[in-house]
Write a sequence for this structure.
């Protein structure tokens, strides 16, 4: 069964179970009394919001079995989608509960809200949780996200864990499912406990164990261009690290000023059991300083992450499409496929604005010559029009790779280029099962 069906099936099963426990526990009892129906709907929506919150925890846990099959792109998209559902369900819960008690007490809604927050059990904790979730939701909107540095966004976002804890204590103290039903109480404790345990094991325990085992350090820093540097990282027993070409880690370089920052960078070379290599472009303060990181600097790495690997391959022949510094995982994949002696045929299209921007073109050329791959370096602005139409349009791609429909296609680059290429490939009739895309905006 596909991982997507597992997720949707489990979510539907838990939704049905939560509804069943709610109804059997008398969730709608007294609905004919003033405000009774509103209170019942509010409690039910609160339970659904709690389920969506648990789904958020499962997605952010980045379970290796799930993440390696779906990829970080898919998990991130679902995390974002379910996050907004959490916010809307929680807000609806607040509105219906407030209106229900206001109807019951015959008081204005705003007055009732103040009474609930400051006099009823742990409702103040829940109110703080709601405010935190609203803040997380606002900063997660695309317009706000584009204006924030990654570090600031991550600082705000991590407070969602505090909201989860506060909401849970609110549910424990006054939630009818907890106070009135031992079965429901056991169910919710198990659900939250399993989700939090998954986060502790995969996001904390496993990275700690791996970093203690491998003891990563910067070995060398090589300048590729004025704004691009390659960093070689060594350690112990790296042949035991389950990393593949096309994957990425969250890297934390332990310098005095930057040890709190973690950034996602793809491997720019196939792991060889001796070194890990990343190639970083100076896109902001968080990456520009890495050009000056000193050999010997300790490194903490969380991962590997990503499903953009040879495991996705379904055919012998492959097309690799890279844009800008999104070439890093493509270069690693080319090296892996180059070592594959199954008689496969590989074509690479490397898209860059200028020759200077094609930072790994020489390495790609050497690898292509070694394994007999065909490399096409396509230069020019995104608006450029060639004799076969727009750059990276369907006619242009077909002119470079006439048999594209008989290939697995790996695409990695900025979101705009990735969308344009995937659209062009769809127009050329490439089946979706043969198209594997990674958005450089997160992973490279």
């Amino acid at each position: 069964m596909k991982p997507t069906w597992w997720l949707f099936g489990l979510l539907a099963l838990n939704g049905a179970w939560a509804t069943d426990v709610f109804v059997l526990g008398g969730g709608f009892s007294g609905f004919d009394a003033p405000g009774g129906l509103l209170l019942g709907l509010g409690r039910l929506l609160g339970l659904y919001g709690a389920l969506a919150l648990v789904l958020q925890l499962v997605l952010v846990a980045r379970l290796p079995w799930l993440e390696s099959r779906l990829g970080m792109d898919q998990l991130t998209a679902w995390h974002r989608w379910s996050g907004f559902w959490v916010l809307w369900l929680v807000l609806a819960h607040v509105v219906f509960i407030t209106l229900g008690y206001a109807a019951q007490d015959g008081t204005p809604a705003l007055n009732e809200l103040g009474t609930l927050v400051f006099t009823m059990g742990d409702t103040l904790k829940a109110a703080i949780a709601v405010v935190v979730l609203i803040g997380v939701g606002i900063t997660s909107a695309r317009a706000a996200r584009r204006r924030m540095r990654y570090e600031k966004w991550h600082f705000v976002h991590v407070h969602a864990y505090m909201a989860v804890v506060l909401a849970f204590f609110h549910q424990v103290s006054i939630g009818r499912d907890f106070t009135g039903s031992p079965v429901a109480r056991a169910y919710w404790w198990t659900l939250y406990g399993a989700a939090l345990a998954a986060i502790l094991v995969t996001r904390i325990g496993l990275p700690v164990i791996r970093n203690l085992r491998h003891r990563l350090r910067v070995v060398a820093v090589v300048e590729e261009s004025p704004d691009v540097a390659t960093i070689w990282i060594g350690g112990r027993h790296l042949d035991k690290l389950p990393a593949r070409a096309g994957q990425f880690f969250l890297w934390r370089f332990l310098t005095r000023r930057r040890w709190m920052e973690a950034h996602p960078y793809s491997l720019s070379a196939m792991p060889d059991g001796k070194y890990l290599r990343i190639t970083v472009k100076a896109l902001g303060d968080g990456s520009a300083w890495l050009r000056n990181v000193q050999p010997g600097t300790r490194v903490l790495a969380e991962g590997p992450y990503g499903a953009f690997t040879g495991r996705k391959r379904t055919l012998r022949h492959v097309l690799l499409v890279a844009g800008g510094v999104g070439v890093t995982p493509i270069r690693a994949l080319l090296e892996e496929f180059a070592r594959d002696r199954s008689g496969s045929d590989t074509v690479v299209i490397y898209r860059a604005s200028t020759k200077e921007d094609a930072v790994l073109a020489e390495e790609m050329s050497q690898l292509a010559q070694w394994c007999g791959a065909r490399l096409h370096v396509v230069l020019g602005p995104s608006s450029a029009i060639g004799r076969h139409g727009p750059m990276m349009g369907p006619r242009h791609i077909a002119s470079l790779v006439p048999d594209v429909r008989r290939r697995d296609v790996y695409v990695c680059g900025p979101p705009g280029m990735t969308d344009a290429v995937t659209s062009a490939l769809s127009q050329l009739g490439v089946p979706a099962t043969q198209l594997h895309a990674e958005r450089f905006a997160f992973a490279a």
